[in-house]
Amino acid sequence: QVQLEESGGGSVQAGGSLRLSCAASEFTYNMVLGWFRQAPGKEREEVAIINKYGGTAYADSVKGRFTISEDNAKNTLYLQMNSLKPEDTAMYYCAARSRYISEWNAWGQGTQVTVSS
């Protein structure tokens, strides 16, 4: 099973930017990768996903502000977050699954993002 480790979280003011990274033990062409977030007292939310053909999808709340990308040579997934808002404050997780199933079965430990107004 793929191992994932996030980094890049931190505290920023509203309007600022952060880039999250997720180092994976392996990338395969049948994988779908994604970023999720969970704020205290709220359910986990899918933020952005990318497949190995470059197809992407975003939550409406982050469209136009966040960009998901990957570097296959480095086995690393990224989430560029611009124009951050206080409501983006959450623990962010990267995850992976096979493109043949819907269950996300590999998760990182999470990285905290805090946006102050």
Polypeptide structure, described:
- By secondary structure, the chain is an all-beta fold.
- Helices cover 0% and strands 53% of the residues.
- Strands 2, 4, 5, 6, 9, 10 and 11 form a seven-stranded mixed sheet that branches.
- It has no helices and eleven strands.
- The protein is globular.
- 28% of the residues are buried.
Cα-to-Cα separation, first versus last residue? 39 Å
The proportion of strand residues reads over 45%
Cα-atom Rg, whole angstroms?
A: 13 Å
User: What is the mean predicted local confidence, pLDDT?
Assistant: 95
Number of DSSP helical runs: 0
> Which residues sit in consecutive blocks of at least 5 with pLDDT less than 50?
none
Percentage of residues in helical conformation: under 10%
Number of strands: 11
Basic shape:
globular
Largest sheet: 7 strands, mixed
Give the helices and strands as they follow along the chain. EEEEEEEEEEE
Derived from helix and strand composition plus strand pairing, the structural class reads mainly beta
